[in-house]
Structures are given as structure tokens and as C-alpha cells.
UniProtKB/TrEMBL annotation:
Residues 465-546 form the AMP-binding enzyme C-terminal domain. The keyword Ligase applies. PROSITE patterns: AMP_BINDING (PS00455). It comes from Vibrio gazogenes DSM 21264 = NBRC 103151. GO terms for molecular function: 2,3-dihydroxybenzoate--[aryl-carrier protein] ligase. This is 2,3-dihydroxybenzoate-AMP ligase. Belongs to the ATP-dependent AMP-binding enzyme family. PANTHER family: LONG-CHAIN-FATTY-ACID--COA LIGASE, NONRIBOSOMAL PEPTIDE SYNTHASE PES1 (EUROFUNG)-RELATED. The keyword Metal-binding does not apply. GO terms for biological process: siderophore biosynthetic process.
Length: 559
């Protein structure tokens, strides 16, 4: 097994680990243990519905165990890293649990990621395999797999959930080995521990999520069994998930919000049913709500607005829907006020991050709290500080930068020592980059971002990453990416380009599409392509010579 170095994973200090166990937050259970406990209790209940297929909890566990054996048969071992990029399909959950059960650590890539991001994930983690879906729209994943096999020395295996079209690629279906005699198939969860993790501490890294980031490449977030299980169990209690919960997942299944807040994992751990949707549009989603009597779903603000626009004229019966969770980006107060009446259900606002901290409005909160705040943390031991630029706490109601630490918030990114020195202070507090206000009763109101990042409808874009690629174009002298307020997306991205001196007089003839095609050709994810492109003769600078993005935002927001 590959050993972890301090650069790979920053553990919680021993006294904090001891405290979190004493308080019962960390239960030393793996993700598979939690799923298996549900299987033992309700083996014949329907766990998962994907298109015309459905799986009971017992069938789900059997598929996971068989697939885990198949991964091992290919030479994947405990401690190996793999990149997992799946659409909303049952195989995502089977792979996720099978890999973490064997202590193989998946990087949870999103369907929107393309060559630039995927090759970075593989190289940065020395991934041994790329496991992918053929169901990602507008993306030749098998071609991408061949490129990764050729260009990333560590990648030895490419595995598709579809039909393998090349001899170098293997089909996931062939890996479901007969494991009927494996003890994890039928043994009660209390006896699973040594089978699933072979005696290793559950503070080991289970998998990696991805930060929105503010620098040139996404940062990898190491999540452990203990911290992630606690965040899910705490979320289940707050959101009152249980065996009657029918959860429609239309956001990307690998995203932290629909995975764990409480998300699909919260449903599995509480005995409910996950219905996977491949199309988040209201017509498609409302059809699934009617067909499966869905009770809850999670949306980002732009999608919530689409559902609200469609609902008054909808012919589908969505009366089973009791709760809509909205998160990923700031939801306007006016829209929040309208949602309960428009969709005839309760609203819950969620403000969280893949690095850890998750805040919820409670189901029994007064309506003014639900529509005007983003809630409060899961845990009594979630430490939240709102500070000014000097790092000093500010009074309740005053805007400041959000810092946090707690039993499920990481202490460092994977192999990012320099960035960790900026993102975490000497006391282990994580600087989230969010500007917030804290109310007297502990609820958080998000007011903006301090980091150089665009939140485009819940998708986080690091400005520096896009700027660095634009600067590779021979006609670009300088470039800046800024956020511009947008009524639908919350924020849209705007690239301001300064052309090389020889092309200044041609600014009116060079079309923005040229640069968009260039970014596409470089393998940048679709959501990172600027929504608009503007040209300037020179970018404004601050007194210390940095690009004055505040002035740019003011100028282009006004226009």
C-alpha cells in the first residue's frame, strides 16, 4: 500500500481527534459499514432507481462487493488512486463504494471536466486508473481515455461503464466477479470493519473531492471515512431523512451537495430511495417526481428558478414533493420567498463547501430565517469566525471573511503545501474565501466572495486558471476574468482581453468566438468558457501593479 506523507494528508491534531470521538462525532465506521447497516435492516427495500432499473439494498451490496473483487483482480490495491468520472448512473455508486471499501481512493471528477482537468488529476495523484462513463453528453470519453493512457505514465487501466470500443479499454460489466462467498455480502455490519478496511484506521483518506479553487488548478480535498460519515449523519438528523424519503438526484451525483448534504449517501444510510435523473430540466424532473412520488430534491439557484417558471403551467402531479433544498450559490431572497408557494413545498437553504463546513436552515425555522439566511452549521463543534482584513473578529451583523474548523472540515489540501500556508492559519482555521454576516442567533448570510473566483450557478471557476490559458493565445497580451452579476446564474464570467500591440487596431474585427474556440481546444471544461468577452486597450492596475478587478467589475456590471 502506498504510504501517506504529510504533503498528501494533514491530519487533525491528536487532541481534536480524541475530542471528536469522545463527543460521538467520529464513530470509526466506514462508508461501506454505514450502507451495510441499512442492508442488514432492510435488505429488500428499494435503494436505487436509474431509468428502468431498480436495485434493492441487498442487490446493491452484492454488486458493490463483486465489483470490489473485480478491481482487485485488475491489480488495483489499497492506497492506489484512481480518477472516477461518471454520469448520473447506478454504476457511480457501485464504483464509489467498491473502491473505498478496498481502500482505493477515487478522485471524484465531474461530468463537465475535460482533458485539461482530467490529465491534471491523473498526474497530480499518480492515478493508476481512469474509470468513466459513456453517457456524458458532448464528450468522447473513450477518446479521452486513450489520451490519458498515452500521456499519463501512471495510468495503466481505462474502464468504461459502457461498451469498450478499443482493446486498451475494459468494460466495467466484466469486473462483477462472483463474490457470493465473500463475507461482506451477508455478514452483519458490526462484523464488516476488518473486511472493508483490513484493520486500517478510518481516519485514512477515503476519496478526493475538488475545490473550486482560486489558483490555476483545482485543489484536491482529502475526505476521511470518519469526517464524511459524521457530516452525513448530522445532515440526516437535521433534514429528517428516513425510510420514507424518496430523493431525486438531478445535480451531478459526484458533487458534494447531492452526495452528502444529506444527498444520496444520506438516503442510503437512512433507508430511503434514490431516484437518479439524467436531465435536470423541469419537464423531465417533474415526470420523475410524479412517477416515483419523490419527496425531496436538491437544486442550485438557476435550476430552482427554471422549476419555478415551469411549475404554474406544468401538467405533471408533483404534490408528493415536500422539500426542495437550494444551495451551491446564493439564492435571492425574493426567489426564496416565492419558492414554497410556487412549488407547494418547503424550502431549505444550504451553504456548504467540499472542504467541510455545511450550514442548513432548519425545517422548523421561522420563514424569515429560511428565506433570508443560509442557515447554521451541523455541529456544536463547528467553529465559525467572521473576521476583518486584519484577522480580528467583527461584531454580529458586520461583513467579514469566513474562517472555520471542525470535525468534518479538512486541515489541508492534497499535495499543496504552499497553498495550504495561505488557506489555513496557524490554528488550523480554513479561510473559505466567503464574505458573510453572522446573525445574533448564529445564522450565516452570504454577501459575496473575497477570493478571485466566479460562482456560476453553483459551478466554481478559478479566474487564474482561465486567464493562464487565454494568455497562451498568440494574440493576447493580457487578460482578466471577472464575475458579473446575473439574474439567472447569480454570477456569469466575463473575460477582458488586451490584444497584442500589432492587433490593437483590429479589436473590432476579432470575434470573441475565436477565443472561446481556443479555450475549448485546450480542453477546458465547458462551464469555464467565459460567458462574454470584452476588449480593452489596457487593464486598470492597483497602486501595487495588480489588475484592479474591482474597477473592472464596476465598469462591466454597469454596462
Amino acid at each position: 500500500m502506498t504510504s501517506l506523507t504529510p504533503l498528501d494528508f494533514t491530519p487533525w491534531p491528536a487532541e481534536y481527534e480524541q475530542h471528536y470521538r469522545k463527543q460521538g462525532y467520529w464513530q470509526d465506521r466506514t462508508l461501506f459499514d454505514c450502507l451495510s447497516a441499512t442492508v442488514d435492516q432492510s435488505p429488500d427495500a428499494i435503494a436505487l432507481v436509474c431509468q428502468d432499473q431498480q436495485y434493492t439494498y441487498q442487490q446493491m451490496r452484492q454488486n458493490i462487493v463483486r465489483l470490489a473483487q473485480g478491481f482487485v483482480s485488475l491489480g488495483l490495491n489499497a492506497g492506489d488512486n484512481v480518477v472516477l468520472q461518471m454520469a448520473n448512473e447506478a454504476e457511480f455508486y457501485f464504483c464509489f463504494f467498491a473502491l473505498t471499501m478496498q481502500r482505493i481512493k477515487p478522485v471524484l471528477a465531474l461530468p463537465a471536466h475535460r482533458h485539461m482537468e482530467l490529465s491534471y488529476f491523473c498526474q497530480h495523484t499518480e492515478a493508476k486508473a481512469y474509470i468513466f462513463s459513456d453517457q456524458i453528453t458532448g464528450f468522447d470519453a473513450q477518446k479521452q481515455a486513450l489520451q490519458l493512457l498515452e500521456t499519463c505514465p501512471s495510468v495503466k487501466l481505462a474502464i468504461t461503464s459502457g461498451t469498450a470500443a478499443h482493446p486498451e479499454i475494459q468494460a466495467l460489466d466484466a469486473l462483477y466477479l462472483d463474490a457470493s462467498d465473500h463475507p461482506a455480502c451477508d455478514r452483519p455490519a458490526s462484523n464488516q470493519h476488518t473486511d472493508s478496511v483490513q484493520g486500517s484506521p478510518v481516519t485514512d483518506v477515503a476519496f478526493y473531492q475538488l475545490s473550486g479553487g482560486t489558483t490555476g488548478t483545482p485543489k484536491l480535498i482529502p475526505r476521511t471515512h470518519n469526517d464524511y460519515v459524521y457530516s452525513i449523519i448530522g445532515s440526516i438528523e437535521i433534514c429528517r431523512f428516513g425510510p420514507e424519503t424518496k430523493y431525486l438526484c438531478v445535480l451531478p451525483a459526484a458533487h458534494n451537495f447531492p452526495l452528502s448534504s444529506p444527498g444520496s449517501l444520506g438516503v442510503f444510510f437512512s433507508g430511503g430511495c434514490v431516484i437518479l435523473g439524467q436531465d435536470p430540466s423541469p419537464k423531465a424532473a417533474f415526470g420523475l417526481i410524479e412517477r416515483h412520488k419523490v419527496t425531496v430534491s436538491a437544486l442550485v439557484p438557476p435550476l430552482a428558478l427554471l422549476w419555478m417558471q415551469y411549475a404554474p403551467s406544468a401538467c405533471e402531479d408533483i404534490s408528493s414533493l415536500k422539500l426542495v433544498q437550494v444551495g451551491g450559490a446564493k439564492f435571492s431572497q425574493s426567489a426564496a420567498q416565492q419558492l414554497p408557494e410556487t412549488l407547494n413545498c418547503q424550502l431549505q437553504q444550504i451553504f456548504g463547501m467540499a472542504e467541510g463546513l455545511v450550514n442548513y436552515t432548519r425545517l422548523d425555522d421561522p420563514i424569515d430565517v429560511i428565506v433570508s439566511t443560509q442557515g447554521r452549521p451541523i455541529s456544536p463543534d463547528d467553529e465559525v469566525l467572521v473576521v476583518n482584513e486584519e484577522g480580528e473578529p467583527v461584531p454580529a451583523g458586520q461583513e467579514g471573511q469566513l474562517l472555520t474548523r471542525g470535525p468534518y472540515t479538512i486541515r489541508g489540501y492534497y499535495r499543496a503545501a504552499e497553498h495550504n500556508r495561505r488557506a489555513f492559519n496557524h490554528e488550523g482555521f480554513y479561510s473559505t474565501g466567503d464574505l458573510v454576516k453572522l446573525t445574533q442567533d448564529g445564522n450565516i448570510i452570504v454577501t459575496g466572495r473575497d477570493k478571485d473566483q466566479i460562482n456560476r450557478g453553483g459551478e466554481k471557476i478559478a479566474a487564474e486558471e482561465v486567464e493562464n490559458v487565454l494568455l497562451q493565445h498568440p494574440d493576447v497580451h493580457d487578460a482578466a476574468l471577472i464575475a458579473v452579476q446575473d439574474a439567472f446564474l447569480g454570477e456569469r464570467s466575463c473575460a477582458i482581453i488586451v490584444l497584442n500591440q500589432t492587433h490593437l487596431d483590429q479589436a473590432k474585427t476579432i470575434k470573441p468566438i475565436v477565443f472561446k474556440r481556443f479555450l475549448h481546444g485546450k480542453g477546458l471544461a465547458e462551464y469555464k468558457i467565459p460567458d462574454q468577452i470584452q476588449f480593452m486597450d489596457v487593464l486598470p492596475k492597483t497602486p501595487v501593479g495588480k489588475i484592479n478587478k474591482k474597477r473592472l467589475r464596476e465598469q462591466f456590471s454597469a454596462s
